[in-house]
Every structure is written in structure tokens, then in C-alpha cells.
Amino acid sequence: MTTDVELAARVDSARPTSGYYRQPDGWITVSPITELEQIQYEKDGWERLRKYGRVEMTNAYAVNHPLEGLLMRGGAEELCLEQIIQSGFPLTPPLIPVCDRLLNQYHKRHDPECWEGAEPAYFPQLEGRDFRGYQCRFCATTPHPTQEARDQHEGVAHKDEKSGIRTGETLADSLATALKESGGVSVAPKAAPTPDSELQTRNPYACGICPESFTRAAELTKHIKKHQEPADEQEEEPVEELDTESATGTPA
Ligand SMILES: [Zn+2]
Ligand SMILES: [Zn+2]
Ligand SMILES: [Zn+2]
């Protein structure tokens, strides 16, 4: 039998020690909310966003999804446009777990059922905006949801070309230079974004359990169910035709 005092002590020791702040530039961050830290942050002009409660930042999933608690509690509209874009949310809006439970020591990770019928977060700030992502400056691959992802792709897939261009130089310039210098080299095909390139975005819905990602929320939901099935019961899923149109939900 657990006494109330024991229970209270246990709950208190389990109390997450991080929370949301708005920094002077408008970006929202997760940081420690101990009294001393908070005083220091407030001196720096940070505003504690109390209504989004406390969050635990002790595992990799939590660290990689720092805004999940805010979004679960309806805080999508707190984010400034720049943070939404830099986070890649226009093309890859995060799914909101349906369990309605923030991660803590009793719910360390979301289970497959937490994602059952989960919907992507909605950002009213993006209403009426046309965001196509970051196009690779060397090839015609699908635009990347973040600048960071684009840079990473370029660094890996176009290591040589990239090292050849100076900062700030455009693709056209670097291609022209390359052509001039070598007297005609085989260069990467010019990126030719089609008018509906926004709809060709791949895999906006990432699984929180493994590295896989999907074009539709429904596919992700189906995929996540597999994580809970014992290996011997796993059935072959029919490969469905990808319906990319429903993936991004074009703003009307
Ligand atoms: Zn959950
Ligand atoms: Zn590329
Ligand atoms: Zn998975």
C-alpha cells in the first residue's frame, strides 16, 4: 500500500524540470525551469510560457521533438513564422500523438497506439502561404523541408561541386564558371521545379519509433501498428499507390 506522502514524494521527484520560453527574437525554446535558471532567463528577456506546462528532456526522442508538448497543448500559434519554416513544419508538419500525454518517466516514449489516427499539427500562420521548401542547387531532387536538410544533402550528394563554389555564388554562376574553366564539363542537370513541385514532397510523416517516413498520415499510422505486432504475426502489407496530393494539404 502506498501512502499519500510516498506518492506525493514520488510524483515530485518525477516532476519534469524543463519548460517553454519565448526568447526576445520570438523563437520558442525548451530550457530548465528551476527557480534560479528562470530568474536568469527572465533577466535576458525570456518569457516563460507557463500554460504549456513542464516537459522532460531526458531521452533522444524528446530532444528531437522539443516542441511536441507545446503542439499537443494547442500552442502551434505561439510559434513565429521563421521558427515554423526553419523547423521544416510547412512541408513536414509533426503528427500530434493522440494519447494526450507528455513524455515523462511514466510515459517515456509514445506507443504505437499513441499514433492511432494522429493528425499533423496545423499552423494558422501558414494559411495562404505557398512554401515549396529548399531546392537543391545542384540537382532536381524533391525540395527539402529545411535549409539544413538541403545543405546536408548538398554536402553529401554534391560534395565536389559544393567545394567548388564560393559562398554566396549562385548555381548559375558556379555552372558557368565550371563550364568556362574546363571548356565544357558534364554538370548536374539544371533543377527544373514543376509548378506542382510542392505536391511532390516526399515523406512528410516521420515515424517516431524508427527512421522510416511516409507521404500520408494514414500510411504512418498503419506503419506504426507494425511496431506493436509480434514478428510472427506480421503480415505482408499491400503496397499502396502513393497519393502525394493528400500528403501536404495545399492551402486553399
Ligand atoms: Zn503517448
Ligand atoms: Zn542535389
Ligand atoms: Zn517505424
TrEMBL record:
PROSITE patterns: ZINC_FINGER_C2H2_1, ZINC_FINGER_C2H2_2. Pfam families: zf-C2H2 (PF00096). This is C2H2-type domain-containing protein. Gene3D superfamilies: Classic Zinc Finger. Residues 205-232 form the C2H2-type domain. Residues 147-164 have a biased composition (Basic and acidic residues). SMART domains: ZnF_C2H2. Residues 231-244 have a biased composition (Acidic residues). Residues 145-167, 182-204, 222-252 are annotated as: Disordered.
